[in-house]
Amino acid sequence: MNGLGAAPEILIETRNLNKYFGDRHVLKNIDFRVAKQEVVALIGPSGSGKSTLLRCLNGLETYQSGSIVILGHRLPPVATPQQLKVIRRDVGMVFQNFNLFPHMTVLQNIIEAPILVRKLPKRLATDMAEHLLAKVGLAEKRHVYPNQLSGGQKQRVAIARALAMQPQILLFDEPTSALDPELVGDVLAVMRQLAEEAMTMVVVTHEMQFAREVSCRVVFLAEGQIIEEGSPHELFRHPQQERTRLFLERVL
Ligand code: ADP
Ligand code: MG
Question: Where's the ABC transporter domain (predicted)?
């Protein structure tokens, strides 16, 4: 906020976003906004369209109608490779299944995109990667391959890799869902730290405690529609919609 009380800067805005897979209408008139430095938790039943919405935001899915503006760039229903490149430079994504390159060491995984896409000199990229590995608590793993890591370690490498591109927005799709319960905490701790550092984040999650404690706003999606959104306190303590209440009863 500046002294004039200006509205916060909006980094993501969808309006009337509609997405179909064939006949199946999976996103219905989605109006979704994320302000700079906001952490938004996206919750809802399986199949409600959470991943699809996230994937639309960085052009991993096309859409049929409505609009997406991200970091001031219009992302049309079917983006060109050049448009995708511009968006993905600045919008990082962390997936449930890590998606690390199996034939590359941890360090190589992290420096690949900064060198190829950001044209960083290898020395600089390596310094940054080592700094990021220390940040996620994995400095000693720089020369190992992903298959030598636990799921929680893989996910922390995936987060370091996303951060190495110095993104302005990070999208997380159930980053802890594939992890053994005892490994979830380390990953959430890294995400919590990013939130404290004011990273703009959209997090699809089933970790309601994380949503409650870390997010600025919770958006509840069901059957392709935003049913309700609000502060964690509003949504978890005083849900307005019956559907939200029923969902929360099942997951809390
Ligand atoms: P969520 O992440 O909330 O579990 P998804 O976004 O993955 O939900 O899926 C929303 C709906 O779209 C589901 O009905 C799912 O079966 C369908 N869907 C997702 N991906 C595809 C695809 N590639 N092709 C066809 N249908 C899909
Ligand atoms: Mg999903």
Answer: 12-248
Strand partners, 228: 220
Confirm or reject: Cβ of 48 under 6 Å from ligand 1: yes
First-to-last CA distance in the chain?
35
CA dist 47 and 186 (Å) reads: 27
Taking the CA of 55 as reference, the closest ligand is: 1
pLDDT of residue 6: 76
Helix or strand or coil: residue 247? Answer: helix
Residue with tokens 């991993």: 60
CA-wise closest residue to 56 among 89, 17, 21, 104: 17
> CB-hemisphere CA count at 13 Å for 214?
27
Q: Please state, in angstroms and rounded to a whole number, the distance separating the CA atoms of residues 141 and 50.
A: 32
CA 103 centroid distance within chain: 25
Q: What is the pTM of this model?
A: 0.96
CA distance 76 to 67: 7
Determine the distance separating the centroid of ligand 2 and the alpha carbon of 37, expressed in angstroms: 23
Residue that has been written with the tokens 């209440």 in this structure: 245
**What confidence tens digit (pLDDT) does each residue in 178-188 have?**
999 999 999 99
144 Ramachandran zone, left/alpha/beta (phi>0; psi -120 to 50): beta
50 lines ligand 1 (CB under 6 A): yes
